Amino acid sequence: MSRPATIDDIHAAALAMPHVTVTRAGTLPIYQVGSKSFVFFRTPRPDTVDPETGERYDDVIVFWVASEGDKLALVQDETSPFFTTPHFDGHPSVLLRGSRVGEVDRDEIVELVQDAWLAQASRRRAETWLREHALGR
Q1: pTM of this prediction?
Q2: pLDDT at position 134, please?
Q3: Category of 90 on φ-ψ map: left (φ > 0), alpha (ψ -120 to 50) or beta
Q4: Is the C or the N end of the chain the one with fewer CB within 10 Å?
Q5: What DSSP character marks residue 97?
Q6: Is 87 helix (H, G, I), strand (E, B) or coil?
Q7: How does pLDDT run across 106-124, given as a tens digit for each residue?
Q8: Which residues in the chain land under pLDDT 70?
Q9: Which residues share a beta bridge with 61?
Q10: C-alpha torsion 128→65→12→61, nearest 10
Q11: Residue 71, CB-side half-sphere exposure with 13 Å CA sphere
């Protein structure tokens, strides 16, 4: 296991992928490939709130995933920091609070960002990246 992940690891991994553009929702970055978001830092929304205080979480990060199976693999374990909400039912993504990113190791967060990019990149770009990195995911 590598060291615990940080928010900076998410930014670095997203920016390390090819053809990435960064747009913003206010000050929050949205990482895109081919105009498709693959990782974004979400503004506070009513579907992600502290169950005790009712306050909206202000640190939710959304990661695209390749399939519903990939999503379930990340959210089914109740001890996992990854989660979803009814708002994201049927949406190929998982959520992670920034305050819990350290519960994931750096290698796992980098792989999650890479997989998010692969889920949104064009087939040609994805195949090229996989070939260049000798990965047969």
Answers
A1: 0.93
A2: 74
A3: left
A4: N
A5: E
A6: helix
A7: 999 999 999 999 999 999 9
A8: 1, 135-137
A9: 41, 96
A10: 160
A11: 19
How far apart CA 93 and CA 88 sit, in angstroms, is 7
Here the tokens at position 35 are 């105009």
| pLDDT score, position 40 | 96
Tokens 């750096």 -> residue: 106
CA 20 – CA 52 distance, rounded (Å): 38
Q: What is the residue-wise DSSP string for 16-63? A: HSTTEEEEEETTEEEEEETTEEEEEEPPP-TTSB-TTT-PBPS-EEEE
C-beta neighbour count of 71 within 10 angstroms:
21
pLDDT of residue 1: 65
